[in-house]
Amino acid sequence: MPQWRKLHTKLIDSSDVNEMPDDFTRLMWVMLFLIVDREGRGLCQPIWIRSKAFPLREDVTLDQVQAAMGWFAQRGMIAIYGMDGREYFEVCSFHRYQNTARQAESNFPANPSGSTAAQEPVASKSG
Question: How far apart are CA 107 and CA 63, in angstroms?
Fold first, then answer.
């Protein structure tokens, strides 16, 4: 896990951020940058995301996490893809704002399509 990440001042004027349905979705967008690896990737399972982004919050539900991730994917902010029966996500604009040269290699596979454009979610049994 990284020790720090950058937040760009463009976040304040971002249409994506300002049009998010609620403050939880906005907070989760910021928290995603703290839990992804050096390639902007993570495991696309609500339980994994909640355990990493909100480990001490008992009030955060898996439904909230899943709804926010669905909103990000629909808006093209993340790409969701499957590989070897697992579902992953990638933050599409990650490398535009983050310098990750000194961080450990990615633990998650790359998007097989090679594109960080929004993908249709893979059916998942992981809730």
Answer: 26
